[in-house]
């Protein structure tokens, strides 16, 4: 079986294309929080909805938008209460259908968004993508980081991923981890896998507490497989 602990970013990164995110970039990234503390990532896809992982569901949830640095949060203009739209077939034991939409009230200002696929897509193996988040960045640490970090990862053939894990949920993408030193870590769950400018995946799970030298691929929920459900919510503007 695969581990279902909250996952996710990045160790041993190149200073040229990876590492700390520049100010005022990737501002579509959300911090999903409980009682004012970062727990998961997420990403804004339009002026009303943030996408995250269903396993990030928790009490007293808010999202922080519009900053790459959680030390500089204006609660009046950056923190929002949410309405949770968790996939009705989500399974907490297997992480099947690990996707959730969070409806935010009217934004205080214009925010950056990131597109998702408009139709079912096929992501070829070895496609170069990026994943960003505020997860644990040092081996042995339990502390997430305040500033966004980003790393390049390549997608992995699904047959290889299935062989290594032995069993994985349906409708996933595998990228990073597995024979590399790049991937996500605890605290990055819910963040986007971005390929060719689109958010195509949602950080779901990795090998338990093994972010530095993972022997198994990192696993993401594949967004395009859930478009009918997502589009229905976006059209109704409600769960």
From TrEMBL:
One of its GO terms (biological process) is proteolysis. The keyword Disulfide bond applies. It is an enzyme of class 3 (hydrolase). CDD domains: Tryp_SPc (cd00190). Residues 28-235 form the Peptidase S1 domain. One of its GO terms (molecular function) is serine-type endopeptidase activity. SMART domains: Tryp_SPc. It is found in: Secreted, Extracellular space. It catalyses: Preferential cleavage: Arg-|-Xaa, Lys-|-Xaa. Keywords: Disulfide bond, Zymogen. Its EC number is 3.4.21.4. GO terms for cellular component: extracellular region. InterPro entries: Peptidase_S1_PA, Peptidase_S1_PA_chymotrypsin, Peptidase_S1A, Trypsin_dom, TRYPSIN_HIS. Gene3D superfamilies: Trypsin-like serine proteases. It comes from the Eukaryota. PANTHER family: ARGININE ESTERASE-LIKE-RELATED, KALLIKREIN-RELATED. This is trypsin. The gene is LOC115357929.
